[in-house]
Design goal:
- The relative contact order is 0.14.
- This protein has a domain at about 5-285 and about 345-400: Cytochrome Bc1 Complex, Chain D, domain 2 (Orthogonal Bundle).
- It is mainly α and about 525 residues long.
- Helix content is about 30%, strand content about 0%.
Length: about 525
């Protein structure tokens, strides 16, 4: 049993004995002092960034193209858009970690972030918001030559691709609509609640300037604020999708058809503004050392060069994290899905969130028996309206989105712990590369065994549809380190050291790889 899981269980027992009330794993997790302090620090950082963004509004030139991404940034950092006015989108996607989770004590253990209802934790690590805007709307490639893969899903956002982008033609915008309604995230019970909150915020004028003066022309019922103060406690459409499906979510705010249509339009506009911010150079700047190298403005070290060669060759990273030859701004993802056979992360609080919270919400009725099926769960859920694709679900059980490897090493300090993969099982890039290298050659062992992650691996979380085109790479320990060295060149915000001589790097078109 891991140290984090043991601490979690002991704390649950202490809380239960002291309170003699129903408890959840999330409540126990929240009571860890370090976690509370880190939450407060992230909240302060969110407030500061939002305040700085609001302060720039008076200086915008009317009609400036910067209005939309600025509005999106303000919305992204606005805590008031959550049910308890305490959690912004940015809470799980902070700049200092590459727009991923910035709470180190969670990265070390439970991984998933607490929601606006602070005792609710979701089941997955927050994906990076950086470069997500470049994912196309979800489609199924089943025609010869249509894509490099055959009979595969491409595009979409979230780990399970449920933000398809089909309605708005933007997976990022649809992702931005998911979190505000997710019971374990911002937990609003109705899109109308988000629109109502926006109508009271200091950026209302900017919103109307971008989208038109009628954005908030809605006849609100007298009880709207009371209704919007209660968290979304509707069960998810399928365990693992986290978000109530469109056919199962009652709309708690009673509006006329015209006002309901206005709410949906304004909610969509909010999402499109956030998508514009995520697509901007503030979130997706292509400013890493490797980008400078591609532009002929930086040299890679010997270790970084060796790592790049391995990345594109023996290490097989290029199979999914594509680095097209000569492309100026590679995304390092093919936007498909894969099951790598990652072991289960038993530290996830989600496995023990089996009791109703104060609002009657039960995140995980299955408890320890739950298996995250990823894309397969989405395909089965009411959120997927395509009946033909529901039949494909078993073929995609256990598959998750291939994430970009840009900013995988972005962190606020060198010893800051990040978590990797959908469940955060890995805690370092070295562990990730070692897994790819030895998954198929090292023996299996029980979780918690002395040699875990070094000389043996626990069995996969989901043993179906495992990718067999990786994971017996024959790399030496030094070669693993070289791959890690290259991955670190993908961190945004690179500046050449003072006194560096001009680069003699060849232009990208002249390079061998």
């Amino acid at each position: 049993m891991s140290r984090w899981r043991l601490t979690l269980l002991l704390t649950i027992g202490a809380v239960a004995s002291a309170m003699l009330l129903p408890y959840t794993a999330g409540e126990a997790q929240l009571r860890q002092g370090a976690l509370q302090q880190e939450i407060a620090e992230v909240e302060q950082q969110v407030d500061s960034i939002e305040a700085d963004a609001l302060a720039t509004m008076p200086f915008l030139v009317p009609g400036s193209p910067q209005r939309l991404p600025l509005l999106g940034k303000i919305l992204f950092f606005d805590k008031a858009l959550s049910v308890n006015r305490n959690e912004a989108c940015a809470f799980c996607h902070m700049p200092q970690t590459g727009f991923q989770g910035a709470i180190e004590s969670l990265n070390q253990g439970a991984v998933a972030q607490p929601g606006s209802v602070r005792t609710r934790f979701s089941l997955r690590k927050p994906p990076s918001a950086a470069y997500a805007a470049f994912s196309p709307p979800l489609f199924y490639a089943d025609k010869p030559g249509e894509a490099k893969c055959s009979r595969c899903f491409i595009g979409g956002n979230f780990w399970d691709l449920r933000a398809t982008g089909l309605r708005l033609q933007s997976p990022t915008a649809m992702q931005a609509e998911g979190s505000p309604l997710n019971p374990t995230e911002m937990a609003n019970p109705d899109p109308a609640c988000v629109v109502r909150r926006m109508s009271e915020r200091p950026y209302k004028g900017l919103f109307e300037g971008v989208w038109g003066p009628r954005a908030f022309e809605i006849a609100w019922p007298d009880d709207v604020d009371a209704l919007c103060s209660r968290p979304n406690d509707n069960p998810p459409s399928s365990i693992g999708s986290e978000v109530p499906g469109p056919n199962t979510t009652p709309l708690v705010v009673k509006l006329s058809p015209a006002d309901r249509a206005r709410v949906q339009s304004t909610f969509d506009q909010m999402a499109e503004a956030i998508a514009a911010y995520e697509a901007s150079s503030q979130v997706s700047p292509f400013s890493s050392k490797f980008d400078a190298y591609l532009a002929g403005k930086a040299e890679l070290s010997e270790a970084e060069r060796r790592g790049h060669d391995l990345f594109n060759g023996q290490a097989k990273c290029l199979n999914c994290h594509v680095d097209p030859k000569g492309e100026q701004h590679p995304l390092f993802t093919d936007n498909t899905t894969s099951n790598l056979g990652v072991p289960r992360n038993a530290d996830l609080a989600f496995y023990r969130e089996t009791q109703p919270d104060a609002f009657g919400y039960v995140p995980n009725p299955q408890g320890e028996a739950f298996v995250d099926k990823g894309l397969g769960n989405f395909l089965r859920s009411p959120e997927n309206a395509n009946e033909a694709r529901k039949q494909l679900a078993p073929q995609f059980d256990g598959r998750f989105r291939v994430a970009t490897v840009r900013n995988v090493d972005k962190r606020p300090r060198p010893d800051f712990v990040k978590a990797y993969m959908h469940n955060g099982y890995f805690k370092s890039l070295k562990e990730v590369v070692h897994f790819y290298n030895t998954r198929d050659t090292l023996p299996k062992c029980e979780a918690g065994s002395p040699g875990e992650k070094v000389s043996c691996w626990p069995p996969p979380e989901n043993a179906t549809n495992i990718n067999t085109n990786c994971c017996d790479l024959g790399l030496s320990d030094d070669q693993e380190d070289d791959v890690v060295a290259f991955l670190k060149t993908l961190t945004d915000g690179y500046t050449a050291p003072l006194g560096s001589p001009p680069s003699s790097a060849a232009p990208p078109a002249a390079r061998d790889n």
